[in-house]
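User: LysR family transcriptional regulator, Rhodococcus aetherivorans:
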Amino acid sequence: MTRSPHSPTVRWPDLAALELLVGIDDHGGLGAAARAAGVAQPNASRAVRRLEKQLGTVLVRRGRAGSALTPEGTVVAHWARQTLADARRLLDAAAALSADRQAELTVAASMTVAEHLIPRWLGRFRGLRDDVQIQLQVHNSRQVCDAVAEGRCHVGFVEAPTVPPGLHSTPVARDRLVVVVTPAHPWARRRRPLTVAELAATPLVVREEGSGTRHTLDLALREFARPSPLLELGSGAAVRTAALGGVGPAVLSTLAVADHLASGELRTVEVEGLDLARTLRAVWRPPRKLAGPAGDLVRMIVRGA
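Assistant: Predicted structure for LysR family transcriptional regulator:
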């Protein structure tokens, strides 16, 4: 590792450790700072201890109630902010140079977004930036956020109600989940809406855990004891096929069933007092301002919305 020309016995500090130190100041503890940085807490603790040993001073006071910066740690964190800001500017400049040379864009999208929105969005974007080579990855919402956090794509699109700490996001569309059945199902002939308790007590055809659709439903019914799913499937298309086949009630995006509702192949079932509206979001890693082709894509989508 390169040594400072002014003090040959001192090594340059680890930027990741400085980020953790600033995170303790911002989030109130080492655990929260580690989560925001996407680092396991034992690794974060070791990194901070190495920084303390390197700088020759105690930066973090540890106790049963948690951890907090010492006065010396507060001073170092203040200067670390400027160092990290300069490092981010360096990385942004390097990324811009790379983007100019490569003009590549890797997009990750959750199933619902990929099936019903991304083709139109990318088609419009091609008309604006035909110099960009686009690659699309399709996952569930949790996997999309993982791909973004790990740097395996430039931007992701998810339907989950929340995004993990450390990622930035912006709304790009609105959507709503609905309960659907075939016309032959008893619920299709009900004159009164279902209660939330009735829905929660019924085995349903649902998406797998980790999908935004499943997360939205589970969050809405979190106060109720629920049976195991009737079927748990890995895509909205599979859930829709099961619903059309009369397997049982299903919960799907209006984007996925609009044509089948219009044709009468499926019927919506009203549920009293249940709001399954949701916001679809673009997600990306810091910095907050999304640059390059990914930024151009998100701005185009937001303007169109």
